Amino acid sequence: MLTLFEDTQLFNSGELRIKAFDIPDAELTLWEHFIKRDEADTFYNTLLAETPWKQEEITVYDKTHLTPRMCVWYGKNRDPLKPVRALTPTLETIKQKVENACGVQFTSVLVNLYRDGKDGVGWHRDHDRELGPRPVVASVSFGETRPFEIRHKFKKEIEKIRILLNHGSFLLMAGEMQHFWEHQVPKTAKEIKPRINLTFRIVY
Ligand SMILES: O=C(O)CCC(=O)C(=O)O
Ligand SMILES: [Fe+2]
């Protein structure tokens, strides 16, 4: 497996770095230190305090489980019958920064909290119909660094890639990525701190 950005020297420098990944069937770009340390600390604390966290129920093979993370959806809903939760000023501020950087306007954001290493998200694609034919997903992370892994769904000869998403980083997934690549945030037995992830999306 390929692990990117483990260079602690560069990590700790706090400098903005933009990396476009050269992978087939996807447009994937990472902004390291997109949000500076102090501001990222403030966003983390505010989001942790003001988000009405809850664990969603999911049904797999007729069995109901709680998702191993806490989530809240803001903005235009995937289910048009559900009420819309308006973005908070903090989420609007981060949304604006992301939109300025990538030139895409988003309608919604899913806010996730991974409380510790027992929380994670399994392999999946974000290609629900209401996200349109080529979903663009803008992912901003705060708190604990967690590896974000991607693998090509069809070309099994391509090595899995691990990207470390640290405090204040911004990862943009675009192009055909959501059709051809799956992603996950694996659980870990390590003692780790919480992580908040925002995924900005466009609901049509
Ligand atoms: O936490 C992350 O980095 C990814 C979250 C994710 O894949 C999702 O919410 O669909
Ligand atoms: Fe996802």
CATH class: Mainly Beta
User: What would you report as the Rg, rounded to the nearest angstrom?
Assistant: 16 Å
CATH H level, superfamily name: Alpha-ketoglutarate-dependent dioxygenase AlkB-like
Q: Main β-sheet, in a few words?
A: 7 strands, antiparallel
Content of β-strand = 35-45%
The tally of helices reads 4
Helix content: 10-25%
Order of helices and strands: EHEEHEEEHEEEEEEHEE
What is the CATH topology assignment?
Answer: Jelly Rolls
Calculate the terminal CA-CA distance, rounded to whole Å. Answer: 36 Å
Mean pLDDT: 93
The hetero compounds bound to this protein are: 2-oxoglutaric acid, fe (ii) ion
Give start-end ranges of low-pLDDT stretches: 5-9
Coarse morphology: globular
Strand order of the largest sheet: 2-3-12-9-14-7-6
Q: What's the CATH architecture? A: Sandwich
How many β-strand runs?
Answer: 14
Class per helix and strand makeup: alpha+beta
What would you say this structure looks like, in words?
With 204 residues, the chain is α+β, with helices and mostly antiparallel strands. It has a single domain, classed as Jelly Rolls. The N and C termini lie far apart (36 Å). It contains four helices and 14 strands. The chain binds 2-oxoglutaric acid and fe (ii) ion.
